[in-house]
Amino acid sequence: MERAAAMPTPVHPQHSELRKDPWRGHWVIMAPGRAARPQPAFRRSLLDATVAGPFAAGQEDHTPSEVFAVRPDGGKANDATWRVRVVPNLYPALRVEHGPEAVADGPADKMAGLGAHEVIIEDPSKDADLTTMPVRRLTEVLWAWRCRLQDLRRDTRLACGIVFRHRGADAGATLAHPHSQLVALPFVPAALTTELQAAHAYRLAHGRCALCDVVRHERELRARVVFDGGGALAWAPFASRAPYELCVAPADHPHPFEDASEPVLAAVAATLKEALVRLDAVLNAPPYRLWLRNAPWRIPGEERHGHHWHISLLPITHQEGALEEATGVHINTLLPEDAAASLRGA
Amino acid sequence: MERAAAMPTPVHPQHSELRKDPWRGHWVIMAPGRAARPQPAFRRSLLDATVAGPFAAGQEDHTPSEVFAVRPDGGKANDATWRVRVVPNLYPALRVEHGPEAVADGPADKMAGLGAHEVIIEDPSKDADLTTMPVRRLTEVLWAWRCRLQDLRRDTRLACGIVFRHRGADAGATLAHPHSQLVALPFVPAALTTELQAAHAYRLAHGRCALCDVVRHERELRARVVFDGGGALAWAPFASRAPYELCVAPADHPHPFEDASEPVLAAVAATLKEALVRLDAVLNAPPYRLWLRNAPWRIPGEERHGHHWHISLLPITHQEGALEEATGVHINTLLPEDAAASLRGA
């Protein structure tokens, strides 16, 4: 009978909740509805699928209605003429329809799952890949990120928007069709605050942007540079957290990502593509995680404009453990100088 | 020729370096010597090994000389009469022999790999497991953690000591023989600072320890309690980051872990064992990560004594992704109330 009581309660697939831990400080997204997603065995078959799948052109009725699309040759919403298409996630962790009211739950806080969870379908074909796309197409993907973030920024209940993508099941992908995801949150995650504080402290101490200094220093030193595209730089950071971790950033101090110009995005896209091509050559098309680090929206203008957005690229080459999980401190067994030399030689 | 230049330089196996990221604020342990550890294919064979392996009783000359051991029946250092044995890691990420001097490296900071990296061998037999050990033996393991942390705390160059363990290759284990690890660091990781600040803010606002309040609240509510051992509680936290994440803590506000009495450790060991037995029953002996959350050493006494140490237990049930990696925000698809009900019923 205890066993019967232990069966999960059926949950509305759209229900989710944000919970704040009272003694550790973190927020968690509780989204039991996402347990209804395709399960691992089936996921593997989706990853290996030879069929078109729900994200392919012509399958638009298998996704929620689109919120944005790139259609340079015209066409209308939800038809098959798109090149990049953004839809709400079918199993959303967060929804804009929720209210922002937080309430106490014992010593903790909780609120309904306010936010956004969108899928950026990067190409009409499931066989496409960022590495082999023309730079112009990659630029359109970054443009879609920019436009969606700009739109969500207008919602004053939301504090920041995170864009990320996975390649390969070992990185967290559940569908092979190339796509990125966008999650907008009504709070700023602690890890992001830590980074902003570090950058802000550097600015207060030196009067300059830390990342601008890093770009200048890496260009002089050259040892950790993977590719210098002029308008953007790809390098293995001095304090890389894992083998072949790369950073791609605009070389000159940029506007906030949501206000980026098309030429800046094109420069970053070209350099990102070079980095991806070299990673594929050296690591034989590894699984990877990629994310955009852009400034949160509800912080003072000085800090927001002081932030230098960039893209982090993390190939999955090893199994992490409890030290990383518990402390965020990583043990890296490959010097970034050696990683960059390999990638330059590719 | 570029290819030749890209070959990793041979590195002294004991060399490591701490590097601080100037614009993201994190520290990384650069330990290229650890790349010489047994590699994945070989690691798998070590995990499956039917031979005794380097941690078994009688193989003491295959490890560095011990720094601590539990020998209730007598015997001398490095003989085979131990029940728990602590040795420096053969591939240490950090060493106490390094100096604490940090230097600038361009806009970044670095220092030699000062710290400690030890292995706590939890049983003379490779076939032992925390889940099946008698509570008295589990208490001896916690006692070994306590004694090593207490010893390292005396080194004023070190800021904190982290104890963690893996079960299973998917959790990060490289040897099947049951062991935990201890890493002492000359800085406090940002993730730990975030937690301490949250707990301290709660104390300032309410005049009470947050975790004491949580224990009281969970006992009243009962919905998330897995096992109540009287002196210690095991529960699924309100803001669990993943399915079946558990916390085990002394019920009464404890002394710092390094000063814990034997009865408190025995109470936590008994409750931890119950939690492990139930996890094994419900999840069929899952891989898991476990870590001790104890207070850093070089913080004000008020904050140190205000901290309520506890053990986190995280079964590996799913593949995490870039959102977790980039932000520390987790999406949990199983309510802790449902997880606890399953575990209570086991």
List keywords for this structure.
346 residues; alpha+beta; HIT family, subunit A; 10-stranded antiparallel β-sheet; 9 helices
Structural features, described:
The structure is a homodimer of 346-residue chains. The first copy, chain A, is of the alpha+beta class. The first copy, chain A, has a single domain, classed as HIT family, subunit A (2-Layer Sandwich), CATH 3.30.428. Helix content of chain A is 30%, strand content 21%. Chain A is built from nine helices and 15 strands. Chain A has a ten-stranded antiparallel β-sheet, with helices on both faces. In chain A, strands 2-1-6-5 form a four-stranded antiparallel β-sheet, with no helix packed on it. In chain A, strand 5 and strand 6 form a beta hairpin. The termini of chain A are far apart. The N terminus of chain A is likely disordered. At the A-B interface, helix 1, strand 2, strand 8, strand 9 and helix 4 of A face helix 1, strand 2, strand 8, strand 9 and helix 4 of B.
Summarize the structure.
Helix content of chain A is 30%, strand content 21%.
Strand order in space, largest sheet of chain A: 3-4-7-9-8-13-14-12-11-10
Low-pLDDT segments, ≥5 res of chain A: 1-11, 40-44
Element-level helix/strand string of chain A:
HEEHEEEEEHEEHHEEEHEHEHEH
Reported for the largest beta sheet of chain A, the result is:
10 strands, antiparallel
For the largest interface, the chains and their residue counts are:
A-B, 90 and 89 residues
Strand content of chain A: 15-25%
Shape of chain A: globular
CATH C-level class of chain A:
Alpha Beta
Number of domains of chain A: 1
The protein's oligomeric status is: homodimer
CATH level-four homologous superfamily name of chain A: HIT-like
* CATH hierarchy: architecture of chain A: 2-Layer Sandwich
Ends apart, CA distance between termini of chain A: 62 Å
Structural class from helices and strands of chain A?
alpha+beta
CATH topology of chain A: HIT family, subunit A
Number of helices of chain A: 9
